[in-house]
Write a structure and sequence with these properties.
heterotrimer; A mainly alpha; B mainly alpha; C alpha+beta; A: Cytochrome C Oxidase, Chain A; C: Immunoglobulin-like; about 40% helix
Chain lengths: ~550, ~200, ~350
């Protein structure tokens, strides 16, 4: 075809000097390169956050262990949480979104390419600033001056009086900077999705990934800002003598909690909704059916977006709110479980009556379904406030949120990796190695996080660098730590697969999965300009219409 | 084969979406509103809770003149944008300049009030909860006014160099949205700090 | 996408093995949960072994919630398992299955049913919240003020004039003669949380705020717990012990605690060292000049089984180590190393040993 020939002439493969090519990556405003930069950045921090977790688990493998000191342990769990949320999960999801949204809506780039680049570099700089803390203070082996106040940095522990060094400041500044990056990305997503869809793509015809990233971006706008505000207040307290959270001057520690969780709860939906997006794109393709109940999926996502802004104090059931306050947050939290449950049924409905293929992306999505179900149900347990009074701040809730973050979100991300790797790199990954990754990681995940619920039930609080023997916690901690070995093995298989396939993988072609959304209509990897001609579409699955002209979707939608 | 266009039936309307700048600016305003909301909530929460030190009604005077200036600047910027839309570049420049002047007067008024509060009344950010929340909220707003003024000043420079034409009217309108936002925030801050809180 | 006979068979084997493993894991999990429930070992602070009304109510609510969520899990799990086995691709004919876009009836059904479930769960929960939080303090209640410090617990009984630390004594309460203990929770520094799982859910201690909770233990014994809100470097060793005494034991304990410190000539030297070193800046011994409030009250130090808020048993050797080198027991705690020479240290310990 004419456009292919033109394209081949324009793109010279691998003939430019390496310095030029690296320079390209540094100054790029192309959404595809920025998306990949986000993803690589996040992968690097995934490994680092994983090392921090491993240190935690080795310390806790037996009671009264001396692998690391209390000080180092406290820095480890703070950095692990902060890293995984802000410098792994958020960037990876922003990265996939940045890469995929323009392609899926038939656009050539994001609405504000330079803002896109600025947002990435702000996020990256924030992470580096945070990690610079490791070489402050007492040096690297004492873990420097890395933050040690927990990832939610409760006041007044963060006041100058109780945290005299700079650990809190590294936390505040690193997240403040990357927070601006997140807001920039969100502005970009919203504008791109609302203003740059190709002709024919009404809001009701755009892929679910676009819808979900739209809702997510709206939530980032509304939720990250409170964190920014709270961090500004904390800095005013620490450096200008302010009293926002100063108990002696009448300040309120609970106010910090409210502000933090007004950010913190929507934040976890910000993390999970793009994971839903991956699952909503992958399950239909590998079941060979359209997504079941598209309008309801959209409505449920929007509902979740709104309702999740009203549940935040379920993280604060133990602070002594009145029974009316507690009851309110119980009902809102239980309510947000309803649209979430609806989505599970819709995914099952998509698979129902289909012809399921168990390639790596689908395996990860199926595991997602089981694990998301269980995590949601432990969430319902935690939403019952009196039950919460026992379970919160214990290893039960740690198990619950890791079930969500790892079992649901990370599994969906791995699924997304395998699904879009051919598109991004032009090469197929190795399916056998991918299956090794899946099974090893699955076993490790369940060993660690299934059994982690039990010490919580038996009274083990979180954030303790050691624990007393004789309370029945030893065997469970041992099993939990053993699971880490399998997870590491799985991730190693993943990294090897990615690297090997980049070099030696067979050519993937435009559309290795026989899929239906617009990104599969371009080359792999797409040309700089994405589409030779902006597509004009008539249904939610434009490529299905092209492949099945006798039975197009637009007849039924 | 892949991106062959599907021809649209000619009966369908043209596919026109909103302008990017406008949507982007609204998204930014939403984010900024969320930040301000938190500071306003903190202010309201801490009304009457200072353990010691000056109280609002003892030290706060109503900044009527500054407020009038800032709110009028919303009107003048609107007039500027309208002039540009009608290709009246000269009128645009004048109204734009008046907007900047009014904004600057507002900032000077704030600075003078702070000087009075700090040196005559002894109220600083570390004095008590009132001081902390007052300076933070009013200061955050003043910071946004400052940023706005800087951007408007850059626009002024372009206007003086003769580079601003009718085709830029949409961009100036989007910029004016930010300025209107800053004004609306002031209305809220004024109500909370000087009316409700006193 | 290529697919071979071998791959499909392999897929089946792996799928079966996975299914069996998951089943085994769930069985294991279930039995262990039950085992935890049936555990009569009092040393295990299991929330499923309650011994006090708040913990009881929570336990019953949690069983109900577990039952409901268990049924939901079983149903949805089966649906997913069924879907992935029944609808896996069997033939290579490349034909697409029927393209179904949705079903309004199903959507309504699986919206309405969860709404009803939520309503039921909510009402059950609201009842328990109200019963625990809004309980009125009856006449025979013991009142305790618990003050959280970095990294120890101060317990004051205002009506009885008692001040102690880290080990809370309360009377057993039975339904015929209820004598619950109502606690007022405040903090001297950062956030803490009082958690003794077998007696009640946890409640936070927050500076500049007064929280309340109550317990009415049904059985004598020792109940362990610890601080459950990260409060700083030694959060992990801010342990709790609640001694539930019979009414007579409790009355006797109260009597002993009310007495000022016994003076004993044998420990004069130690007492002199205590009162002339910086000990008295932080610690109190009633009836003497020592009235520091920063650290625990030591008047009846020897009535406690542990020191350093449960970090180590209360023995002379441990006492000596705690005074001389607290970082060996609780690194980062706010007890300073006293740097005494050996004779002084021995004399001081001998004095402390007389504080019964």
């Amino acid at each position: 075809m004419a456009s292919e020939t033109i394209a081949l002439n324009l793109v010279k493969l691998g003939t430019r000097p390496i310095g030029d090519r690296l320079h390209d990556w540094v100054v790029t405003v192309d959404h595809k390169k920025l998306g990949i930069l986000y993803i690589l950045y996040a992968l690097m921090f995934l490994v680092i956050g994983g090392i921090e977790a491993t240190i935690i688990r080795i310390q806790l493998i037996v009671p009264h262990n001396h692998f690391v000191s209390a000080e180092v342990f406290n820095r480890m769990f703070t950095m692990h949480g902060t890293t995984m949320i802000f410098f792994v999960t958020m960037p990876i999801l922003f990265g996939f979104g940045t890469y995929l949204i323009p392609l899926m809506i038939g656009a050539r780039d994001m609405a504000f390419p330079r803002l896109n680049a600025l947002s990435f570099w702000l996020t990256a700089f924030g992470g580096l600033l945070l990690y610079y803390s490791f070489i402050g203070g007492s040096g690297l082996y004492g873990a420097g001056e890395a933050p040690d106040v927990g990832w939610f940095a409760y006041a007044p522990l963060t006041a100058r009086a109780f945290s005299p060094g700079h650990s809190t400041d590294f936390w505040t500044l690193g997240l403040l900077v990357s927070g601006f990056g997140s807001i920039g990305t969100a502005v970009n997503f919203i504008t791109t999705i609302l203003c740059m869809r190709c002709p024919g793509m009404t809001l009701g015809k755009m892929p679910l990934l676009a819808w979900m990233n739209l809702v997510m971006a709206g939530m980032v706008i509304l939720a990250v800002s409170p964190l920014t505000a709270a961090q500004l207040m904390l800095s005013i307290d620490r450096y200008l003598g302010g009293h926002f959270f100063d108990a002696q001057a009448g300040g309120s520690a609970v106010l910090w909690m409210h502000f933090f969780w007004i950010f913190g709860h929507p934040e976890v939906y910000i993390l999970v909704i793009p994971a839903f997006a991956f699952v909503s794109e992958i399950i239909p393709v590998f079941s060979r059916k359209p997504i079941f109940g598209y309008p309801v999926m959209v409505a449920a996502t929007v509902c979740i977006g709104f309702v999740s802004m009203s549940v935040w104090a379920h993280h604060m059931f133990t602070v002594g709110m009145s029974s009316y306050g507690n009851t309110f947050f119980v009902i809102t939290t239980m309510m947000v479980g309803i649209p979430t449950g609806i989505k599970i049924f819709n995914w099952i409905g998509t698979m129902w009556g289909g012809k399921i293929q168990f390639n790596a992306p689908m395996l990860f999505c199926i595991a997602f379904l089981f694990q998301f179900l269980l995590a949601g149900l432990t969430g319902i347990m935690l939403s019952a406030a009196p039950f919460n009074w026992q379970l919160t701040a214990s290893y039960f809730v740690v198990a619950h949120f890791h079930y969500m973050l790892v079992g649901a979100i990370l599994f969906a991300i791995f699924g997304g990796f395998y699904y879009w790797f051919p598109k991004m790199s032009g090469r197929m990954y190795n399916e056998t190695l991918a299956k090794w990754h899946f099974w090893l990681f699955l076993i490790g995940f369940h060993l660690t996080f299934d059994f982690m619920h039990i010490p919580g039930i038996l009274g083990m609080p979180r954030r303790i660098y050691t624990y007393e023997p004789g309370r029945g916690w030893e065997i469970w901690n041992l099993i939990v730590t053993i699971g880490v070995v399998f997870q590491i093995a799985g991730v190693v298989a993943f990294v090897i697969n990615m690297l090997r396939s980049l070099v030696k993988g067979e050519s993937a072609g435009n559309d290795p999965w026989d899929a239906w959304t617009l990104e599969w209509s371009t080359s792999s990897p797409p040309h700089d300009y994405n589409f030779a001609r902006i597509p004009v579409i008539r249904s939610r699955r434009p490529l299905w219409d092209l492949k099945h002209p006798e039975d197009p979707d637009w007849k039924y939608e | 084969m892949s991106c062959a266009a599907i021809t649209r039936p000619s009966t369908e309307p043209d596919f026109i979406l909103r302008s990017r700048g406008r949507v982007g600016m609204f998204a930014l305003i939403a984010a900024e509103s969320a930040i301000f909301t938190i500071f306003v909530v903190a202010y309201i929460f801490y009304i009457g809770k200072s353990v010691s030190g000056p109280k609002p009604k003892d030290v706060l005077d109503l900044p009527i003149f500054s407020t009038v200036c800032l709110l009028s600047s919303s009107l003048t910027i609107h007039l500027a944008v309208r002039a540009l839309r009608n290709a009246k570049v000269g009128a645009f420049g004048s109204w734009w300049f008046v907007t900047i002047a009014l904004g600057a007067i507002f900032l000077v008024g704030t600075a003078r009030e702070w000087q009075r509060l700090i040196f005559e009344k002894g109220l600083t950010v570390s004095t008590n909860l009132f001081g902390t929340t007052y300076y933070s909220l009013v200061g955050l707003h003043a910071f946004h006014v400052t940023v706005g003024l800087i951007v408007l000043a850059i626009g002024m420079i372009f206007a003086l160099l003769g580079k601003v034409k009718q085709e830029h009217s949409e961009r100036t309108e989007i910029l004016s949205l930010y300025w209107h936002f800053v004004d609306v925030v002031w209305v809220i801050v004024f109500t909370v700090v000087y009316v409700i809180g006193r | 996408m290529k697919d071979t006979e071998r791959e499909r068979k392999w897929g089946n084997i792996v799928g079966t093995v996975a299914g069996i493993l998951i089943l085994l894991a769930s069985l294991l999990l279930a039995t262990n949960l039950c085992a935890a429930d049936a555990a009569t070992s009092p040393a295990i602070p299991s929330i499923f072994n309650p011994q006090s009304t708040p913990a009881d109510s929570i336990y019953h609510l949690s069983i109900f919630v577990l039952a409901v969520t268990g049924v939901i899990f079983a149903i949805v799990f089966s649906l997913i398992a069924y879907a992935i086995t029944k609808f896996r691709r069997r033939s290579e004919d490349g034909a697409e299955p029927p393209q179904v876009y949705g079903s309004n009836q199903m959507e309504i059904a699986w919206t309405v049913i969860p709404v009803l479930i939520v309503l039921v769960l909510f009402m059950a929960t609201a009842r328990v919240i109200h019963a625990i939080e809004d309980a009125r303090m009856p006449k025979g209640a013991i009142e305790v003020t618990a003050i959280g410090h970095q990294y120890w617990w101060e317990f004051r009984y205002p009506a009885l004039g008692i001040v102690t630390a880290n080990e809370l004594h309360v009377p057993v309460s039975n339904s015929s003669r209820p004598s619950p203990t109502f606690l007022k929770l405040i903090s001297a520094d950062t956030d803490h949380s009082f958690w003794v799982p077998r007696l009640a859910g946890k409640t936070d201690l927050i500076p500049n705020r007064v929280n309340r909770m109550w317990i009415d233990p049904h059985d004598v014994g020792v109940y362990v717990g610890q601080c459950a809100q990260f409060c700083g470097i030694q959060h992990a060793k801010m342990l709790l012990r609640v001694y539930v005494d019979s009414p007579q034991q409790f009355a006797q304990w109260v009597q002993e605690e009310k007495r000022p410190a016994q003076s004993s000539d044998a420990a004069e030297e130690g007492r002199r060292i205590f009162e002339t070193t910086s000990c008295i800046n932080c610690h109190s011994v009633s009836g003497t000049v020592a009235d520091g409030r920063f650290g625990p009250d030591l008047t009846h130090l020897m009535s406690r089984d542990t020191i350093a808020s449960g970090a180590t048993p209360n023995t002379p050797e441990n006492l000596k180590m705690w005074i001389q080198d607290p970082d060996a027991i609780k690194p980062g705690s706010l007890m300073p190393a006293m740097k005494l020479n050996d004779p002084d240290l021995d004399a001081l310990t001998a004095y402390l040993e007389t504080l019964r």
